[in-house]
Write a structure and sequence with these properties.
This protein is α+β, with helices and mostly antiparallel strands. The chain has a single domain, classed as Alpha-Beta Complex (Aspartate Aminotransferase, domain 1), CATH 3.90.1150. The chain has four helices and eight strands, in the order ααββββββαββα. The strands form two sheets. Strands 1-2-5-6-8-7 form a six-stranded antiparallel beta sheet. Strand 7 and strand 8 form a beta hairpin. The two termini are 26 Å apart. The model has no long low-confidence stretch (mean pLDDT 92).
Length: 140
């Protein structure tokens, strides 16, 4: 069985965000950090030096023998977009996604070019619902 490569680190989330070269992308990452801290009440942790996670759960895959720890929700400020990880997926989020604004989504990933493209209270609601669903499912 292959070991999962994405793991939490002890690196600083603040330094990670401060090192983002593009000023607009850096500002969006700071805004998303604040939104997700408020939505989860969790302290952010840097995972794999490229993803900011909130909370944690242990999983064992139904499809493979893979198991490991993963954030309950997270985001990654990538060059092409902000990726927000809503771990339960989007099956029950249709009405919220219609209100959200300009985005794409697939699997557990929500892709946003700029925070100014979306309705922030709706984004916060999506993060809160996904986080609470995962907390309920994994009991942490």
């Amino acid at each position: 069985m292959a070991e999962i490569k994405t793991k939490k680190t002890k690196e600083s989330v603040v330094k990670f965000i401060a090192a983002i070269p593009d000023a607009k992308q850096r500002a969006d990452a700071k805004g998303l950090l604040a939104l997700m801290k408020k939505a989860t009440g969790e302290k952010p942790v840097l995972w794999n030096n490229n993803m900011v996670g909130f909370g944690e759960y242990h999983y064992e895959s139904d499809r493979s023998a893979q198991k490991g720890d993963w954030p309950l929700t997270a985001f990654s400020p990538r060059k092409s977009n902000l990726t927000v990880y809503i771990m339960p997926g989007f099956k029950d989020y249709g009405a919220l996604l219609k209100k959200l604004g300009k985005h794409k989504h697939g699997g557990s990933c929500l892709y946003i070019k700029r925070l100014s493209d979306v309705h922030l209270p709706t984004l916060q609601t999506i993060v809160e619902r996904g986080y609470k669903a995962m907390k309920k499912k994994y009991g942490r």
